[in-house]
Amino acid sequence: MQRPDASPSRASVTLAVVVAALGYFVDIFDLLLFALLRKKSLSDVLGAQLAKTPTEQHDALLKDWGIWLDNTLQMTGLMVGGILWGVLGDRLGRLTVLFGSILTYSIANLLNACVADVDAAGALGFLHAIGLGTAIRQYEVLRFLAGIGLAGELGAGITLVAELTSRERRGIATTIVASVGILGAVVAYFVTQLMSWRAAFAVGGGLGLALLALRVGVVESGMWNHIRAHGHRGAIWMLVWPRRRLVRYLCVVLIAVPIWFAVGTLVKYGDVIGISLGLPAAEKPDPGRAVMWCYVGLAIGDLASGLLSQWLKSRRGSVLAFHLITVAAMAFYFVFGARSQTWFYVACWCLGLGCGYWAVFATAAAEQFGTNVRATAATTAPNLVRWSAAATAGLWVGLERQLGQSDGAPWKAAAITGAIVMAVAMTALLGLRETYGVDLDYEEV
């Protein structure tokens, strides 16, 4: 039975959905900024190093630094932040996380716009003593801190909306949040095309701070209000014990790993893989445009997967359908992506469409667990998936080295990695219970 305090007015629910959707929009905008600005910003920050490096090695250098800053540092920040904000979401409330996370990543991005080599004899010379005297070192720290901040938005927003919305409309509400949020990447692309990389980071930080004003008036979850005076809340150990709960949690995470392999490797490093596939240098894909087209597909896929889960009355059925679409999209990417730059971008759009079950995944992550650990699960799971981009990128690079220095090594390694990722994800789907329409007003014991 739903308690009276867990049934807010329609206006309160609508406001929560709008704010969560816009919050996730800004979250994705800022999350993808580095991917869109990788080559432009690193070419500037590493200008002196690039000047000493042969031209034919520039792409490899920028790729290595990109993987380190994005797939490793920022994604590790997301994992750390996922645990931090998830526990706080269950202990202090969903709204606390919505405020705290956006403030953290907004400030980090504003500072990212200001990175610069510091004169050791100047007023900021002390930065050299703590290892932050160069722009690239500042970049490293700020991408990690931005990752921590970016970790809280989606999980807290989805948890709040899921708990405020009726079980019949819950899937629609969370689909709106995810679909609107994904469009943040498309807007980010056009912003980065019109502005310098520093100005784009400043815009991302400014949007986040402006969003804080909209948070006024959003109500806290009635379910969380009921349990806050008793019981274990935000106890991370409850996700790993008993064993059956740990298995369920791991299955939730693993079903979505293909999404961030596709985005974090196949799309973000499309310039490297595209050339490996056989595209001529004159048609080398632009990573920023590849990301943009991928996220157009993701937005459509998120809407479609959410509606499909409502129509099938099954989260598992919708995820399975989109797993199969993702397999087909990966095959299309490797078979047709080398035909031309246009075909490569079409393949990126197809990957986005197939991976557009993020909305259903986020909803299922919240539905799989009780109110006392729901925010912890719903916040850590997406960020573990994002962090998996570091693991899959590492596997890709490792396999590439094993295959030798041949021109085709990057795409062959990526194809093998993709096959492994999809096999694991589809197996993990078998370990999930169906949660469509379940009552969320319960606690884990």
Summarize the structure.
This protein is an all-alpha fold and 445 residues long.
| Radius of gyration (Å) | 21 Å
Q: Return the structural class.
A: mainly alpha
CATH architecture: Up-down Bundle
Which residues form runs of ≥5 with pLDDT under 50? 1-6
Taken from the alpha-carbon principal axes, the silhouette is globular
Order of helical and strand elements = HHHHHHHHHHHHHHHHHHHH
- Named CATH topology: Growth Hormone, Chain: A
Helix content: over 70%
Indicate how many domains the architecture comprises: 1
How many DSSP-defined strands?
Answer: 0
Ends apart, CA distance between termini: 18 Å
- How is the biggest beta sheet arranged? none
In percent, how much strand structure appears in the residues? under 5%
Query: Quick one: CATH class?
Result: Mainly Alpha
Mean pLDDT: 90
* Fourth-level CATH superfamily: MFS general substrate transporter like domains
How would you describe this structure to a colleague?
There is one protein chain. By secondary structure, the protein is mainly α. It has a single domain (4-220, 236-431), classed as Growth Hormone, Chain: A (Up-down Bundle). Helix content is 73%, strand content 0%. It contains 20 helices and no strands. It has helices spanning 10-31, 33-45, 47-51, 58-91, 94-112, 126-129, 135-150, 153-164, 170-194, 197-211, 222-227, 243-254, 257-267, 270-277, 287-312, 315-336, 341-354, 358-367, 374-402, 409-428. Helix 14 (270-277) packs across helix 20 (409-428).
